[in-house]
Amino acid sequence: MRSNIKHSIFSALLVSAVFTSNNSYAWGQNGHRIVGKVAELHISETTKATIKPYLDGESLAQISTWPDEMRSAPGEFWQKKSSRWHYINAAPGKSFSFNHEHTKNKESVSNILEGIHYSMQTLTDTNSTLDAKQFSLRFLVHLVGDSHQPFHAGRGEDRGGNRIKVSFFNEETNLHSLWDTKLVENENLSFTEYAQFIDTNNSELIAQYLQSSPKTWVEESHNLATKIYKYTNDEVGYSYIYNNTPIVKTRLQQAGIRLAGLLNALFDPAAKELETALVFEKKQTN
Question: N or C end of the chain, less CB within 10 A?
């Protein structure tokens, strides 16, 4: 599958030279790699051995950006359906939810929660093919990161901040891009440096992060987005960076720790510290 994936990415790059998308990607490449790298530091040896065939010679950090790289690829799934996997919207006053019927195949997934659960089910299904599990691991790593970017649970009417223009040190951008890329890149760190700086071995903090579920993650993001909408002006600068970079770092840290906890829960029941506290909607509904 590795050669097929590389060929697909090459094709996607050719296609992207002709077609452009208005959608911003959560966290940008570095942000997703940071999440993958933090997770690598916390998955158990059993989990590492189990997912090795699904990684196909790459790392969690390397595969974390694949779903974004493929969004310009030809084919109905990538052109018309895959974008729905990356975000979720909820009407004011209503909670986030997903339809279990939509998680039965990748074509029917309609939001990020359904994408996470489809990927979980595929990875634990003994009847799933190797290709399907490689696809699902790539998406799962990516979507856990997406679920922690506030504007992937933002307002539908402004497309998660994509339609809100802001000026970042006189550079025109939008609120979504500001959060997924600009605030991360402003630290001037490689993804490995960033991951090392925000990583934690605080067992109490880890346990706190893991007392959650994918639904919790998007609810947290939605609540953050609601606050950010209110205090973001047309121009952002040093004070905005000072006030919001800690939030970015916390969300990336949480995403990495929770991704590790999720993978350990799926593949290593003996991984006590990173598994026992995590609660999944999947277990709650079975």
Answer: C
Inside any domain, residue 16:
no
**For the chain, how are helix, strand and coil distributed in percent, rounded to 5?**
65, 5, 35
CA-to-CA distance for 246 and 20, rounded, in angstroms? 32
| The two three-digit tokens of residue 99, written as one number | 């339809």
Say how many residues make up the chain: 286
Helix 238-267 to helix 203-210 angle (10° resolution) is 80
For 79-126, the pLDDT digits (tens) are: 999 999 999 987 776 788 888 899 999 999 999 999 999 999 999 999
Whole-structure pTM value: 0.87
User: How far apart are the C-alpha atoms of 213 and 194, rounded to whole Å?
Assistant: 25
Nearest to 150 by CA among 68, 87, 69: 87
Query: Which residues does 89 contact at the CB level (< 8 Å), separation at least 6?
Result: 111, 153, 154, 155, 156
Q: Which residue segment(s) compose the domain that 171 sits in?
A: 2-7+22-86+96-285
